[in-house]
Amino acid sequence: MQAPPHGHVAVLKTDVTCEGVHFEKGEKPEWVGRKAVARVLSDFAATGARPAGVLIAVTLEGRPTAARIAYIRRAYAGLGALLRQYGVALAGGETSRGGGLGFTVSGYGWGRRAALRSRTGARAGDWIFVTGSLGTSIRGRHLRFEPRLAEGRWLAAGGWCRAMMDLSDGLGKDLPRLAQSSGISYAVDPDALPCNKGAAVEQAVNDGEDYELLFTVPASKATALLKAWPFALRLSCIGRMLPQKSPPQTGGLVFRGYDHAS
Amino acid sequence: MQAPPHGHVAVLKTDVTCEGVHFEKGEKPEWVGRKAVARVLSDFAATGARPAGVLIAVTLEGRPTAARIAYIRRAYAGLGALLRQYGVALAGGETSRGGGLGFTVSGYGWGRRAALRSRTGARAGDWIFVTGSLGTSIRGRHLRFEPRLAEGRWLAAGGWCRAMMDLSDGLGKDLPRLAQSSGISYAVDPDALPCNKGAAVEQAVNDGEDYELLFTVPASKATALLKAWPFALRLSCIGRMLPQKSPPQTGGLVFRGYDHAS
Is the pLDDT score of A262 beyond 70? Predict the structure, then answer.
């Protein structure tokens, strides 16, 4: 693989996508493969880094039968299309017998160190933003989401956001994580939450699998950001970061999120 | 992560290590974690690249109970010690529920393009070499092997070898792969095979899990290599690469190897 351009650092991300956890048996293999890669591209989006290549490690339960090989081929067709769409190389892969059907995708890419973001770095007083709309993604959008690569790079490279992450487990789990990583607290206005059609505000907070960007912006830049935002994608200000000692404020909403590990 | 030094390209490798396939339930978690990382470092050794960092993706069957968390902690202790030994960074990781206990390790590193090797590039007339000794590794060495990083880099950077790979599935499966990738054939002298203590020559060929280096050297350099070899590790010339149309010659040995996928 090509080395990062001069002045850039390498960025590495890995994500597991397993049957029975991240997708169900009946789902189309093309969408399953696509999701496995899209999850990692979404990780890159949230850092502001540019993904250059991925490695795919597939585990199969039992022997590689003709049906299983056909499934993997179709999954590769789906993930290959997504990689082409975003100009990311398939740098290698392997298939191994394992405990169940799963895809571990590892991504490699780069960014300028000063233009990379993480969950740390948010400050009290920052405004909290999310892209897109949230909730009920499990009805199908969790397989078809677009990783917000252009948006993430624009936000990070332009110095708009201080902390950023992607919403995989739901705002109700991921915002507390961002706050904890940054050592501060938060207040969310339930009325400001962008809900998907048919999604209640509780679902927008706790369903998970939205893969939208969650980020914080210095108060001095928040209005300018709303004016400068060049994307068709919806952008919503949903609250403020609070000092460490403030209890989280959620307007009565239960912040729980979705736990992939349980 | 640090970008590759000027003039180098990035090298990416991924490997899956699953319970019931690459290790058994009763084995010490420290050794299991160590093996998961050592397999990837061995991939780097076989290219002549320098590994810089790894990502660890762990899958667990079912909920993360206290016992399972303790297991993962011990596995990380084992793999962490190996990473420190070879100066490789732990660049990140995640734990997810999945179909069974498994570790997918993704490595990132670099090398000068001209000093990287793969299974392709062997030519008819090349001498075939292996490092170390082969066979019966499943009795325990498969958990404790040393990735041949120094040896691999020396061989590739010095221009000694044309094609190189590591022996994970046994010479009986891996040498035919190397020959096929290079578009040629091979002849092996059974009497020249370096066998581990207590290993029959059939075991040296087909047991697998040796993680030694297999490589081919131009005939004009083979004797000089044996003189120049600066390592304590055993080095054996075991045969010659043949033209494409020659049938493989194995002195009557059945070349089968070990298939991790079946």
Answer: no
pLDDT, average across residues B164-188: 97
Residues of chain B in contact with residue A95, where contact means CB-CB under 8 angstroms, are: 261
| B63 DSSP 8-state letter | S
State residue A261's pLDDT score.
56
Interface contacts A/B by beta carbons within 8 Å: 157
Q: Which residues of chain B have a CB within 8 Å of the CB of A21?
A: 96-98
**Residues with Cβ < 8 Å from B96, sequence gap 6 or more?**
A16, A18, A21, A22, A260, A261, B57, B58, B59, B60
Task: Look at A261 and B11 and tell me if their CB atoms are within 8 Å.
Answer: no
Say what the pTM is: 0.92
| List of residues 6+ apart from B38 with CB closer than 8 A | B82, B145, B146, B147, B211
Lateral strand order in the sheet of B163-166: B163-166, B213-217, B127-131, B235-242, B185-188
Measured between beta carbons, the chain A residues lying within 8 angstroms of B4 are: 3-4, 10
B259 touches A at CB < 8 Å? no
- ipTM at complex level: 0.87
A242 vs chain B: nearest CA distance in angstroms?
Answer: 28
What's the Cα-to-Cα distance from B87 to each of A27, A234, B90, B109, rounded to whole Å? 42, 45, 10, 12
Beta bridge partners of A108: A12, A53
pLDDT digits (tens, 9 = 90+) for B197-208: 999 999 999 999
DSSP string, A117-169: --SS---TTPEEEEES-BS-GGGTHHHHPPP-HHHHHHHHHTT--SEEEE-SS
For residue range A144-201, what is the model confidence (pLDDT) as tens digits?
A: 999 999 999 999 999 999 999 999 999 999 999 999 999 999 999 999 999 999 999 9
Query: CA-CA distance, A91 to A75, in Å (whole number)?
Result: 16
Question: Cα(A63)–Cα(A254) distance, rounded to whole angstroms?
Answer: 45
